[in-house]
Write a structure and sequence with these properties.
Strand content: 15-25%
Structural class: alpha/beta
Number of domains: 1
CATH architecture: 3-Layer(aba) Sandwich
Largest sheet: 7 strands, parallel
Number of helices: 10
CATH superfamily: NAD(P)-binding Rossmann-like Domain
CATH topology: Rossmann fold
Number of strands: 10
Strand order of the largest sheet: 3-2-1-4-6-7-8
Length: about 290
């Protein structure tokens, strides 16, 4: 029961790598029991193996989860209640980079899939977590990974930015609804974080770009976002709800504009396609004709 999350139970979607994995390991180290929910079975099981190696085998489970599918999200929550006796924190973190390219050439199906993962997945996580937390009667914390791309116009592709902006406002709306039940609802808005979703196996290539993008001299790490999630999930954040906590090394203070600095600038207007992130599915690319 020791640690800031001693005795608590969490579900972390997208827990197979990056921010999700760092959060799973931090939550476990702080005494929580955690369900790792991820579409990528290989990376999901890898997170569980890392947790077991750290001495947390009894406190972690994996369930394959496509967050755009309601039955999958409901089962991830049910796994927490069945295996660990309840749910105290739902971290809607799973994501993809999604549709990209000029607005005149975006494929509508790619747009829809981006929204399904980034926005519908958050809605489903909130819905099913809220049902359990309200029935338990002991409150809880629902977190969602938004992005500074949801706060500005130049820090992400259009579909991604629109979804993240919606997550931020959905967080506000649901926080009001669930406050009487002492269920806190917050979002985290990371900047450029050195995760596989961003660096794609080449973090050293990305670091010099980040020096131009943000005033803080050190690149953001998944562990930095996990620390923010810990604060919001723990009793330390008991009076924080409806908030969007920015974790970006000062990038938005400077003005952001990741598309120009690290996202290809004019080059981003010459190709169009769909980036499935770290799900294990290959991206689709085609030139703009």
């Amino acid at each position: 029961m020791s640690g800031r999350l001693g005795g608590k139970v969490a579900v972390v979607t997208g827990g197979g790598n990056g921010i999700g994995r760092a959060t799973v390991l931090r939550f476990l180290a702080e005494g929580a029991k955690v369900v790792v929910a991820d579409l990528n079975e290989a990376t999901g099981h890898e997170t569980v193996s890392l947790a077991a190696h750290a001495g947390h085998a009894a406190s972690v489970r994996f369930v394959r989860t496509d967050v755009s599918v309601e039955d999958d999200v409901e089962e991830a929550v049910a796994t927490a209640t069945r295996e660990f006796g309840g749910l105290d924190c739902m971290f809607n973190n799973a994501g993809i980079a999604g549709a990209f390219g000029p607005i005149t050439h975006l494929d509508a199906a790619d747009w829809d899939h981006t929204q399904a993962v980034l926005l519908r997945g958050v809605f489903l996580g909130m819905k099913h977590a809220a049902r359990v937390m309200r029935a338990q009667g002991r409150g809880g914390s629902i977190l969602s990974t938004a992005s500074i791309a949801g706060l500005t116009g130049g820090d992400g592709p259009q579909a991604y930015s629109a979804a993240k902006a919606a997550v931020i406002n959905l967080t506000r709306a649901v926080s009001i609804e669930l406050a009487p039940d002492r269920v806190r609802v917050n979002a985290i808005c990371p900047g450029a974080i050195l995760t596989p979703l961003l660096h794609r196996g080449n973090p050293d290539v990305l670091r010099p770009m980040l020096e131009k993008y943000q005033p803080w001299p050190d690149a953001g790490r998944p562990e930095d976002v996990a620390a923010a999630a810990l604060f919001l999930a723990s009793d330390d954040g008991v009076f924080v709800t409806g908030a969007s906590l920015v974790v970006d090394g000062g990038a938005t203070a400077r003005g952001g504009n990741a598309i120009e600095i690290i996202g290809g600038g004019p080059l981003s207007q010459t190709i169009v396609g769909m980036d499935h992130g770290t799900t294990g599915r290959d991206p689709t690319l085609r030139p703009v004709s």
